[in-house]
Amino acid sequence: MADRFSQRRALWAITKASFRAIFRNISSLIFSIIFPIVFILIFGSFGQGVPGRNKIAFLPGTDTTSQLYDSIISNPLIKVISYRTAKGTIDTARMKEDLEKGSLDAKVELKQFMDSSGQPHFIIHYTSTTASGNAIAALKQTFDNLSFKMERQMAGTRFNHFQIIPRIYEVRPYHTIDFILPGQLGFSVLFSTLFGIAFTFFNLRETLVLKRFYASPVNRINILLGIGASRLFFQLVNVIILIGFGYFFLNFTLLNGFVTFLELIIMSVYILFILMGVGLIFSSVAKTDTSIPLLINLFSFPQILLSGTFFSIDVFPKWMQPFCEALPLTQFNNAIRKISFEGAHLTDCWKEVGILGIWALITYIIAVRVFRWE
Predict the structure, then answer these.
(1) Domain boundary among 122, 149, 169
(2) pTM of this prediction?
């Protein structure tokens, strides 16, 4: 009789039953699909540009000894990006590339000269692209305010010590949806996966279903795979719906078309694999079902706030940004944005993939140690 038992059929039966159970839960459908779409529509209607500090880089030849330079680098609304190489030169090619991608808001050159009366005059010459969206207007306003403030501090009554010369050229536009939708993908998979896995395994354990499974001829790995595969497939359906909604209705950028779409799916599977491990940990360490939401919120809400889901992490103090960068959802958001808008491939996202790999390793080492069948 044992010889006739099919592990493959058992795996398929568990997967199918778990998948049906997910779709019977209306709240999971609302939370996984409807909420993210609502957030996408709300935040996507704000127009172009992403809130946060303006990212600028100084061109070679910039006067770094002037008071104007000191005022710019100390301005809280501006973040200066360095493109200096190991040889001490400035990589202007990479600067131009980032400018056209929207990763850099402007490249700036500062000049200072004295007039015949000995009064200093300053020239701010900056170049930006339409990929920066509303960040262009924000940067101009920052330069205007800065020059006006310095004018008031300078001797004399003539307000003509500053000249601001912008140059904006047309490139592929950067829409708010290109920032918001990746964050909402992360938001959706984070909460729905953690709640789904944690509560599912906790309830199966409390009702002794896992114990019965454990005593059956079904391989233990097939039990975990069956439940995990149903959750993975459900979340991938959500991801496809959200990407499709953004692409067809809100002009979400898929730079390399179907190839970009496939790479977004692969990254989603990667983060889902990690989050399922976290859900297993929470289901094992929780003593009651009321403690599960607390554990999930302690893990999730810092990431929702600090991982660039709704706004750039550049708005946070510099001492906090390394912590933000270490969060798995930050790396997922960064990778998705690079792949979709910048046209990067998975091989170009080695940093993000590597940090997520460390999270996966730590997560499943803990999960193996704490997971209980009863």
Answers:
(1) 169
(2) 0.77
